[in-house]
Amino acid sequence: MSSNPGDRRARRRAAREAAAAGGRRSPALRWLVPGLIVAAVVIAAVLAIVLPGTNGPTTGGSSSLPPSSSASAGTASAGSPGSGALKAPTITGAQLPDFQNPNGDPAVGLAAPEVSGTDLSGKPVAIKNDGRPKVVLFIAHWCPHCQAEVPLIQTWVSAGGVPPGVDLVSVATGIDPTRPNYPPEAWLQREGWSVPVIADPTNSVASAYGLAAYPYWVFIGADGKVVARAVGEISIPDLETEIGRLTSG
Question: Is 212 helix (H, G, I), strand (E, B) or coil?
Fold first, then answer.
């Protein structure tokens, strides 16, 4: 069957237009796929910021423990690079309950564990029930709030802030060569830290004292019993108030 040339041209034109229309997307569809890709990239970036356990600061000026570990989990073994041959301290006495809240703290009135250890250079340092009130400060080299607290306390110590008859002892814990500001001895040396330091390479002292976050404070009376515990940065006036409670009895 024949047809005139005009009809054939019209059919071919219609076929070409139909084929072209089938290969084209509507404006909404053209932008849908790139939009989904951009959204996926944005969501991935947000998750990268929110999800990792970076021990960022918590309310109250403290740094929380790593979510994948506990205070009793070891982080720096003896002979870790930059920390010398750190020896785990010897601890005697019952472990204190984990710290949760300063109000109604169940550790108050309990005997503080005694500790025999060494500092970061291997010299003996201890926490003993010797009839002297004590302030024990737990710090971690990677904790930004500890990094802010150490120079503040050192200035106070250098000015003669520690009352006679009261011992101020620090515990370097949470030691981890994979985290910032390692090794802790180099950090404390830069700060001119003159407070005695007990090295806690396996976090055993932190666990025995119920550490929950950094910096962590334990105030011990002359009778060797816990008077108070606290988490976070403490101002000098507040520190002096707590020490006054130790010496007023």
Answer: coil
